[in-house]
Amino acid sequence: MPFLDTNHQRAAFLVALLGVALIIALTPYATGLVGIPVLYAVFAPVHDWLSTRFSPKVVAGLVVALALFLIVVPGVSFAGLVVAQAQQIASGVARNPVLGKLAELHIGQIDLGPRIADLGAKVVSWIGSSAFGLIGTATRLALNLIISLFGLYYLLLRPQETWDAVRPYIPFSAKNAEKLRQRFRDVTTATIIGTGLTAAIQGTVVGFGFWLVGLPNAVFWGVVTMVFAVLPVVGSGLVWGPGAIALALDHRLGAALVLAFVGLVVVGNVDYIIRPRVFSRWANIHPLVTLVGALAGVPFFGILGLLIGPLALSYFFELIKMYREEYLS
Questions:
Q1: Per residue in 184-199, pLDDT tens?
Q2: 156/279 Cα distance (integer angstroms)
Q3: CA gap 197, 190 in Å, rounded
Q4: Which comes out higher in pLDDT, residue 188 or 208?
Q5: Are 101 and 252 spatial neighbours (Cβ–Cβ below 8 Å)?
Q6: Which of 144, 201, 216, 223 has the fewest Cβ atoms within 10 Å of its own Cβ atom?
Q7: What pairs with residue 107 in β-bridges?
């Protein structure tokens, strides 16, 4: 069959070619572009409530200002906390007598201690140097945030017109397209609220546990736990687990058992109680989707992939379900 012998084929080829070129050119800003509908789904209830009291432009401006505040203040606080304490933690760990005990560890005829100590020194050095790497990525994050907030502003001004423009390109019936629209909002709300609430509670509990057993930098490790807690089941254990091991190696078995109890029983039950309740309230999302999505999203979107990855994987399964219902049943 001849290729590009009709205007129809030439037009389709030209559109596809330009589309691929645009996708490649916009790849560095994918986080900002994906953030537009995500932020809209999160802040739509606030927008709807304010719409009855102020003009559309004022409402859109207020919602964007609220989004900016809720994103920038925690983000800047976390970055400042990391930069301020990473070098202090690195030097403190380097002087810790636990490293000396690890250096003398032997298992049979294998001198395991020196290898562990060398690895620990490299990790500590990496933490100290990487803390300032956050500054290097600030420009890219700020640019993506500006794109998301500008897109959110104009989307809030004309939500229905935007949906009417996108609707003809959705390859599903009007009923399923509307269902997909609502499902998008439910999945986004469930993921953001469920993940954020769980992470906040787990970080608070782990930070309190560190303070209770006398480990230094309890606030810092509590904030780090909030980041890792985005990963269900295993996330918070990446913080309190090494803390309990360090206490045990320092011959503080009672404190190690207390921290392990806090991590396994208290923090663990938060993950099994809070997250499923929130997910079942807005959307039926399995915790495995959150875990796999987060692991897949980080290489492409950085730390924001911890949220974007689970969202993308949830939308993917929703599209498969809708395709099966409409075209295969």
A1: 787 777 777 777 788 8
A2: 26
A3: 10
A4: 208
A5: no
A6: 216
A7: 110
